Amino acid sequence: MTFKIFTIFLLTFLSTFYTIAGNERDSTKQKVSEGKKGLNFGVLPTITYNSDLGFQYGALLDLYNYGNGKIYPKYYERYYFEWSRFTKGSGINNFSFESNRLLPGHTIFFDVMYRPDDQYDFLGYNGYDAVYNASWENKNSPDYRTRMFYKNQTKMLKIKLDVLNPINKNLNWVAGFIFYNINVHSVDINKFNKGKKDEDKLPSVADQPGLYDRYVTWGIIPKDQINGGSLLGIKIGMMYDTRNNWTNATKGIWSEFVLMYVPPFIGSAKANYLKMSIIHRQYFTIINNRLSFVYRIGYQGVLFGEEPYYAMPYMINITNKNSMETGLGGSKTLRGIRRNRVNGKGKAWLNAEFRLRFLNFDFIRQHFYLATNIFTDMGMIVQKAPIEERFNKIKSQHPLTDTEFWGANFKETDYFNFDSEKPHISYGIGLRVGMNENFVVSFDYGRALNHQDGISRFYMGLGYLF
Prior knowledge:
With 466 residues, the chain is mainly beta. The chain has helices at residues 2-16, 189-193, 211-218, 387-397, 403-406; strands at 18-21, 39-45, 48-50, 54-65, 77-86, 91-99, 107-121, 151-166, 171-185, 228-241, 252-262, 273-287, 291-304, 346-363, 366-383, 424-435, 439-448, 456-462. The chain has an 18-stranded antiparallel β-sheet that branches.
């Protein structure tokens, strides 16, 4: 099944892809081996697939400005527009802009994104401390409850601005801000039941509450945070970058250190905390222009204060491309592991992969290549949200025998397995179809080692992971 899906998407890409290379002098006589000049468009119907999100449909425009071509394959500006929807109920409305010329000597990253998600993954907090029961969402299982058990409805608006200020050729200090407005609610069951036969309808939240609804009822999520809120983070940091290519580096280092302070007087969260993120990426050439080994290691945690529960999944970084919008798990962090599975106050992760570029060819006056990657990903919660403390406090007020409070047939071991967190590990293989070094369509298939993380996931998207 996975191979068939992969084949369909590859043929779709090759048959629907169209490019326009503008502002090039005598482009009909230009040899494809020369560097690209002027504007280069990548226009693609977003007919993709993601095991966590479903089939994606819509359109995107990826526009690069190479100027006179002297810095190719690097670029002066990048514009990215996307409008798309997924069949499992989420969407992407995104505009991002990157410029190395708007402020001479500085690089600007600007990003606006609105992501509604009718089936946002919510599997609790602190990784394996929260038990995942796959049978509860499997309609063919005798233990079936509802396929929405590990879901809620989340709508996220993000506005982000970062400015890189050079210290020397490779080192920059960074300043910026990020604004979030996050709305969280129970799944709208009526929306999914519309037009369905009675035997195919989902049970109501009242009859079969999901994990999020139970956390709300039990008081594990504080009352003032159950429906989300807004917050503004003020960022400052450093970035060191010696990559030989911004999209598919084969040698160099790319590291960033970011502090984000969320003051209590801005936004609805009434939060007051300082968050730190450290991400280090390194690239090694094994066979020139063919084979490389790359890895990314990262940590993100709270230095002081209490981060709101609804903000814990969101990761902070500097650049826009392939930004991580959920907790660990999913196509941007731990491939093969269920989206947002590893969610907590502090996280650490590692991605490592070999990248083999096995075919270069020219088509419609553009440069293309095919590459494969073999990877392993792992992540772990290293700073836990205070779930165990809250649960024990609630349990002291409402003994587990209080079925009116906890619900019938409640068992602590069905929901919590405290002090069991350990590394979440996955492995897999991928394919890349690249055009002009910067526009890359990606296919990845990953498998989780532990069934508590799911079994396997398939993704089609854009770009390399890092």
